[in-house]
Design brief:
This protein has 216 residues and is α/β, with parallel strands linked by helices. The protein is built from eight helices and seven strands, in the order E-H-E-H-H-H-E-H-E-H-E-E-H-E-H. The two termini are 17 Å apart. The structure holds zinc ion. The site of zinc ion (ZN) has 8 residues, from loops.
Length: 216
């Protein structure tokens, strides 16, 4: 099972990706993390990436795709992978091996007020990296490890509005391209998190059982 997951800020990508990865025994590939890892380990490509990030520039797509493809080749006993978050624009889409992917899961929330509320209430644990909400942890302590929770520096309204606009302009065309290939699993992610996860699993199961029927 080779998947990617896409969705705007606040759609629940991180949490759902972790749950999907556990349930289907998939390697959980976080694009931002593998870039950081290359930089931290000072690999040849990591050193080149550092030259960009250290002056506040984006790492060029070619380099990101190079390290991503390297990760996708090593399955380490998993039954596939799920990529969070790529391709986020058409440039990445064109440089990825889309043929090899089974499907893109698109988490959709039509009501942006829901996204705003989720993102502005979001808290993160600096110690175990759990993500929670002011509503679930009103005391401000991590429910898993007890550390003091913090807001992410970019979880504010102007940044969120910018990211939503960018999502519409750059990522929605990618979603349309997956749809045209018959590789889109669209999920309404506006509800409660367990209900959303259940819907994702039902749709994944249906997608792969239909795919298997077609291949017979
Ligand atoms: Zn914690």
């Amino acid at each position: 099972m080779k998947l990617v997951i896409l969705g705007p800020a606040g759609s629940g990508k991180g949490q759902n990706t972790a749950r999907i990865a556990r349930k289907y025994n998939l390697k959980h590939v976080v694009v931002g993390d593998i870039v950081k890892k290359e930089i931290r380990e000072k690999t040849d490509v990591g050193k080149i990436m550092y030259d960009y990030t250290s002056v506040g520039k984006f790492v060029p797509t070619n380099l990101v795709m190079q390290v991503l493809n390297k990760q996708l080749k090593k399955l380490d006993g998993y039954d596939g992978y799920i990529i969070d978050t790529a391709p986020i624009n058409m440039e990445q889409f064109e440089k990825m091996n889309i043929e090899e992917l089974d499907a893109a899961i698109s988490l959709e929330v039509a009501d942006y007020d829901i996204l705003r509320e989720r993102v502005l209430n979001r808290l993160r644990c600096p110690s175990c990296f759990a993500v929670t909400s002011v509503l679930d942890a009103p005391e401000g302590h991590c429910l898993d490890c007890g550390a003091e929770l913090e807001h992410r520096y970019d979880d504010n309204l102007p940044t969120l509005n910018f990211r939503l606009k960018q999502y519409e302009n750059e990522t929605v065309p990618v979603i349309k391209s997956f749809k045209a290939l018959g590789k889109l699993i669209k999920v309404d992610a506006s509800g409660d998190k367990d209900e959303v996860f259940k819907q994702i699993c039902n749709k994944i199961n249906r997608f792969f059982s239909n795919k298997a029927k077609k291949e017979v």
